[in-house]
Structure formats: structure tokens, C-alpha cells
Specification:
Number of strands: 36
Largest sheet: 8 strands, parallel, barrel
Shape: globular
Strand content: 35-45%
GO molecular function, one term: cellulase activity
EC number: 3.2.1.4
Organism: Roseateles terrae
Family: Belongs to the glycosyl hydrolase 5 (cellulase A) family.
Protein name: Endoglucanase
Number of helices: 10
Radius of gyration: 25 Å
Length: about 600
């Protein structure tokens, strides 16, 4: 049996942290630590997404967002889990010129982050920090004395070194500052910048700093930095150091230009797969591509969708959908296809309202859909290919046009016309065929032309029988207790779930069982020696469908398929897997009508 480093109680605590509803304030945040190339929260792998504020410098414009109202809005509306205070140092209006003003801004944000149960990065935002070592030591000593007992606080001792030596210049500077912090605060996470604008993490990985709970800064701008920089990051991870992307942008390295959507998503996929926490640059209204807000946006939060730039809208979507983050909105449904999705189960929206419906089966529909309004939905697409999308719509007069796209924009999958049906509750079904990529993702529905209501959306694979097999990747759980994900060598690659011991459990997004009957359930499993027992149930254990024994396969990556048959009722089912006897890994499970 694999051994875990923490007790079941701590697993339960972390599970509550990771899946807790955003409306419920946590008493604290889990302490961060470094183990190998991973940053842990409460002793377990975790990652967080959030925002970096712009330079704090007096008179630069971004300092107006250094306040508690902004922090609260980012936590509650954007679902941000981390915020970075980019305290300018040696530039005009920075800490060296105005220490009182800059320090007051930093403390305002740190205090608000602690109150909102967010992690907060205190960043010495300079390109020449080695020239101000004594000032950095004094500053971080004060921060450590003030905040060192708070799990929330992370120290970033050097933002972006330029093209200078890691071992000869950056490392000695960092060791001096780290030593000063550690004399006061022995354990909070410290992040160290790396050469060439914090891109050469591979150089740092070949000569790492001794000490506990130290990670290294990686910065990227998707419009300029592609696979070559991810390769450097992978080298650093392979060499055993932990990374934190304390600054990233969806535009070019200059901070300006258009959004590089596909490359941004490539980076998001990489960070998710590697468990790398991150903060987007920048929460500001400067007239440049990297700014999240349009010029003149309120300095106190409360921003509408229209006040977000293209970068800001994309960033908000990425943060809201980050694994382990709180549910984006009450009612947001995470489903695996094929499925019928109720329109009101959106994760984010702009401009629409929910109202009672008189359509069959009652409930609610989404109404007041005008041109430019949108909703997003969290779905798992089991395999890339063509899918039939049916929309249940009503329109009193003009009809409209629905566009299905990747949530946040970018890829457009198709459009369909909505006819006039003669009334807001006179319902009909329209359909289109779209080609979807595989994987967990946000789908967006945009009203290209408004004037209709929407009750539900039904998505099924073209050519698949109604009761064809549904494959669910084990790592696509929406809640769990006691397990971890890890890279797999099984066919198809990706991740598997490991460390499944007695008492552990997982629950999965809702799937649609088209008809009642006998179903074959297959599980892709591996076990070094002990095997175990797996129970399929309704999430929460109210209904048990059956169990199957897991054999020893001779290795944690020696994969076999086991199966059993169960009786399933028709309808929307939220399955759970309970581990009755442990010691195995799980890659996927498949549900097929017998």
C-alpha cells in the first residue's frame, strides 16, 4: 500500500479548502510548503490562480487599485485565490523615493487579502535588486515581523533580474534576503526571481538555493513566449525545483498588443498539468493590452463585463475555472458529455436573467437575452469529434442567433438561428453540428443577435447510439478526499489518480444515463501489490450500484482493465467512487449499456 504523509483529517481539511463554496469564508488558508518540484497546501499538491496589481509607484496610476474593496471584488467576483502586490522599488515614485506611501499600499492589500482568506505575494518589484540589497533586507525583515505568522503571506524577493549571472549575482543576493527573513519567519514560502526577466529557470535549477520552502519565479507573455520557454520550465521541474508564475500576460512581452488566445491556453494547460500557481499581469486600467480593465474603470471594484479588456475577460474566465478553486457561481454544473445542460446552470454570464418556465418539466429558463449577452458552461468532452447541439428556445417575435464558442472567446464552433415562436414561453428545438476538442473546458454561448429565451442545451456525439459508452477520466473529479493526481504512462498519457487508500472517495460531474438497464462498468487500474476494492455509488453514498475487486498488477503503472455489471436508472446521475480497500491507482472508468 502507498503511504500518505498526512492523516485523513488533514486530507478532509484540504478537500474542504479546495472545493468550498465561494460564499463561505474560510477561517484561514492552508500553509504553503515545497516538496521537490511541487508547492503544497496543507501538505498536499495544490495550485492557485489570481491577479498581480500594477506597479505601486506613486503617480503611475495603478496605485489606486491598492485597496480592500478591489481585493474583496477579486475574491468574490473573479474567484481569485492569490493577489500580488508589485511594490516598485527604484523607479520614480517607488519605495526608495516614497517608502511611506508604497509601504502603506502594500499593507492595505496584505491586510485585505488576509481578511478575505487569500494568499498574497509581497513582491520587491525591481530589475536591479542586487543594487539595493540592504534596503531589501530591511523591508522584508519588517514584513516578516508584521506578517510572518500568517499562512497567507508569500515573499517574492526579486521580480525580474535582467541578463545577469544566477550563481554570481542573483543567488548571493537572494541568500542574504532569505537569511534575514528566515531569522524571523522560519517557514512561509519565498520565491526568487531568475535571469533574463525571470525566464531562465533552468539556470537556477542547476544551482539551487539551499533551504526549505523556496520556489523560483517564471514569467511569460503568451504573445512572445511559447513552447521553448515551457521547455525551460520543464527542465527546471525535471531538475527538482518548484516554480511559481508570479506574472503572466496574454499579450506580448512589451505588455501591449492583442491577446494571443491559443498560446495563452497552451500555457494554462501546462500550468494546470504541472500544478503551477500563477498571477496575471496586470490589474490596472492603463491603455495597453496587458491591462485587465478599460481606462477609467472604477478604483473600487464592481466592474461590469463591459469594463474588462479582452485580456481581462479571458483572465477572469481562467481564474474562475482554475482546478481546486471555488465554484464560479451557485448552480454552475460541471457535466460530462453526452448531457442535457439546463441553461440556468451557467458558470459565468453577462446580461441575462433567470425566470420560471412553462416548458415541459418546469423549472427555470434563461431570459432577457439581448445581443452581446453570454453564458459559459463547464463540460468534459470525452473525445474530440462532431457533436449535435440542440437548443430549447422561445421568442415572442424577432428570434436571434446563438454562437457556440470556447469560453472567453477564441475558437468559434458554430452558429444557429433562433426562429420566432410566437411567445416567450412557446418552445421549440433548434440544432447544429459542431466539432469540439477533447477535455475539460468552458463552452460559451453568445447571443450574436438577441431576443429569445433558452431552457436547455443538449449535446451528444454524432452517430453515437443513445446508450453508447461514456469514458470518464479519473482526474476529472469535482470533489475528493485523500487522493492525488500524477502523470501516467498508460496508453493516452495524461494523469491518473493515485494514493487511493481505504476510506478515500471521489465524485464526478453529472452524466446522462439515457435509459434504465444493465450497464458494464470498466475501470483502468494498477497496483504494485495489494490490490483493493472499489465501490460505484451515487455521489455521497446514498445508493450503491456495485463493487469490484482490484488485483495486484505488479506495478503502480502496470495497467489492466477490470469490470462488473450494474443496474442503473435513467436520468442525470452523479457517480461516486468509494475505496473500501486501498492500494491502487485509477486512470479512467467507462460506462456502457450491456
Amino acid at each position: 500500500m502507498k503511504l500518505k504523509s498526512l492523516c485523513t483529517a488533514r486530507h478532509a481539511l484540504l478537500a474542504a479548502l479546495l472545493i468550498g463554496h465561494s460564499a463561505v469564508a474560510l477561517a484561514d488558508v492552508a500553509p504553503l510548503s515545497v516538496s521537490g518540484n511541487r508547492i503544497l497546501a496543507g501538505g498536499q499538491p495544490a495550485s492557485f490562480a489570481g491577479n498581480s496589481l500594477f506597479w505601486s509607484n506613486t503617480g503611475w496610476g495603478g496605485e489606486k487599485y491598492y485597496n480592500g474593496n478591489v481585493v474583496s471584488w477579486l475574491k468574490n467576483d473573479w474567484k481569485s485565490r492569490v493577489i500580488r502586490v508589485a511594490m516598485g522599488v527604484d523607479e520614480g515614485g517607488g519605495y526608495l523615493q516614497d517608502p511611506a506611501g508604497n509601504k502603506a499600499r502594500v499593507k492595505a492589500v496584505v491586510d485585505a487579502a488576509i481578511a478575505n482568506d487569500m494568499y498574497v505575494i509581497i513582491d520587491w518589484h525591481s530589475h536591479h535588486a542586487e543594487d539595493y540589497r540592504s534596503q531589501a533586507v530591511a523591508f522584508f525583515e519588517e514584513m516578516a515581523r508584521t506578517y510572518g505568522k500568517n499562512n497567507h503571506v508569500i515573499y517574492e524577493v526579486y521580480n525580474e533580474p535582467l541578463n545577469i549571472s544566477w550563481s554570481g549575482t542573483i543567488k548571493p543576493y537572494a541568500q542574504a534576503v532569505i537569511g534575514a527573513i528566515r531569522a524571523i519567519d522560519p517557514d512561509n514560502l519565498i520565491i526568487v526571481g531568475t535571469p533574463n526577466w525571470s525566464q531562465d529557470v533552468d539556470a537556477a535549477s542547476r544551482d539551487p538555493i539551499s533551504g526549505a520552502n523556496i520556489a523560483y519565479t517564471l514569467h511569460f507573455y503568451a504573445g512572445s513566449h511559447g513552447q521553448w520557454l515551457r521547455d525551460k520550465a520543464q527542465t527546471a521541474l525535471n531538475n527538482g525545483i518548484a516554480l511559481f508564475v508570479t506574472e503572466w500576460g496574454s499579450v506580448g512581452a512589451s505588455g501591449d498588443g492583442g491577446v494571443a488566445t491559443s498560446e495563452t491556453w497552451a500555457w494554462v494547460d501546462f500550468m494546470k498539468a504541472k500544478g503551477i500557481s500563477n498571477a496575471n499581469w496586470a490589474l490596472n486600467d492603463k491603455s495597453e493590452g496587458a491591462s485587465a480593465l478599460v481606462p477609467g474603470a472604477s478604483s473600487q471594484g464592481g466592474w461590469s463585463a463591459g469594463q474588462l479588456t479582452a485580456s481581462g475577460a479571458l483572465t477572469k474566465q481562467i481564474i474562475g475555472g482554475w482546478p481546486g478553486g471555488p465554484a464560479p457561481t451557485p448552480g454552475c454544473t460541471r457535466v460530462s458529455l453526452p448531457a442535457q445542460i439546463q441553461a440556468e446552470a451557467f458558470c459565468q454570464m453577462s446580461g441575462v436573467q433567470v425566470e420560471a418556465t412553462s416548458d415541459a418539466n418546469g423549472g427555470s429558463n434563461v431570459g432577457y437575452i439581448d445581443s452581446g449577452d453570454w453564458m459559459t458552461y463547464d463540460v468534459n468532452v470525452p473525445a474530440a469529434g462532431n457533436y449535435v447541439v440542440k437548443y430549447r428556445v422561445a421568442s415572442a417575435s424577432g428570434g436571434g442567433v446563438i454562437q457556440m464558442e470556447k469560453g472567453g472567446g477564441g475558437a468559434v464552433y458554430g452558429t444557429v438561428n433562433v426562429p420566432s415562436t410566437g411567445g416567450w414561453q412557446s418552445w421549440t428545438t433548434v440544432s447544429q453540428t459542431v466539432s469540439l476538442p477533447a477535455g475539460q473546458q468552458m463552452l460559451g454561448l453568445v447571443a450574436k443577435s438577441g431576443g429569445f429565451n433558452l431552457n436547455w442545451v443538449d449535446i451528444s456525439r454524432v452517430g453515437d447510439p443513445v446508450d453508447s459508452g461514456i469514458t470518464i477520466q479519473a482526474e476529472n473529479f469535482d470533489a475528493m478526499n485523500g487522493v492525488q493526481t500524477e502523470a501516467t504512462t498508460d496508453s493516452g498519457g495524461g494523469l491518473n489518480v493515485g494514493y487511493l487508500d481505504a476510506g478515500d472517495w471521489l465524485s464526478y460531474p453529472t452524466v446522462n444515463i439515457a435509459s434504465a438497464g444493465t450497464y458494464t462498468i470498466e475501470y483502468r487500474v494498477a497496483s504494485l501489490n495489494g490490490g483493493g476494492n472499489l465501490q460505484l455509488e451515487e455521489a455521497g453514498g446514498s445508493v450503491v450500484y456495485g463493487s469490484v475487486n482490484i488485483p495486484a498488477t505488479g506495478g503502480w503503472q502496470n495497467w489492466v482493465t477490470v469490470k462488473h455489471t450494474v443496474q442503473l436508472p435513467a436520468g442525470q446521475r452523479k457517480f461516486g467512487i468509494a475505496v473500501r480497500n486501498g492500494g491502487y491507482n485509477l486512470n479512467w472508468f467507462r460506462i456502457t449499456k450491456s
